[in-house]
């Protein structure tokens, strides 16, 4: 029904924004990722998803979700297509990790990093990887995820090296995800390890 809303930011906090357009004020749920991108701005163009809550086969309410860019909205839609992942859980995931970091975790089968997100357990993390990995592999170019796919071959080897050095797997995974994002798809295993060690 709606693709985007562009207008003045009337109010904003880390979970919601009110944006006005032609005399109407739209309140929309946002992630921390979107909040960080648009806070301090007077205007914004937000890509939206209008979802209906249904009870007894009848819509009882509407909820608007807004995103700073189409890639984040696409990831939201991907996440909510997974059984057991609701709208609020998907927004929490997008508040915890940027869309390309989430994509990297899924492509690499990084269950540990997904589990580090509040509310995501072992089974949920495994289900997300299982159901979305192939979809992301097919759509990574359209989502701009070349960097994520480029580091996937080196990620597991760098992770193994860090855990061998005595670092906790979860901490090593987080460091590698940050370094992978910063360095992009051209990073070597040595670069991944060296830069991860700087922040561990």
Structure description:
The protein has helices at 32-38, 70-80, 87-96, 99-107, 111-115, 122-139, 146-164, 169-183, 189-199; strands at residues 4-12, 16-21, 24-29, 43-55, 58-67. It has 200 residues and is an alpha+beta fold. The longest helix has 19 residues, at 146-164.
What does this entry show, briefly?
This protein is 52% helix and 22% strand. The chain is an alpha+beta fold.
Which outline best applies? globular
Q: What is the CATH H-level superfamily of the largest domain?
A: 5' to 3' exonuclease, C-terminal subdomain
Helical residue percent? Answer: 40-55%
Seen as an oligomer or otherwise, the chain set is single chain
Order of helices and strands: EEEHEEHHHHHHHH
Comma- or semicolon-separated keywords:
single chain; 200 residues; alpha+beta; OB fold (Dihydrolipoamide Acetyltransferase, E2P); DNA polymerase, domain 1; 2 domains; 5-stranded antiparallel sheet; 9 helices
Can you lay out the helices and strands and say which pair or pack?
Blueprint lengths: L3 E9 L3 E6 L2 E6 L2 H7 L4 E13 L2 E10 L2 H11 L6 H10 L2 H9 L3 H5 L6 H18 L6 H19 L4 H15 L5 H11 L1
Antiparallel strand pairs: 1-2, 1-4, 2-3, 4-5
Helix pairs in contact: 2-3, 4-6, 4-7, 7-8, 7-9, 8-9
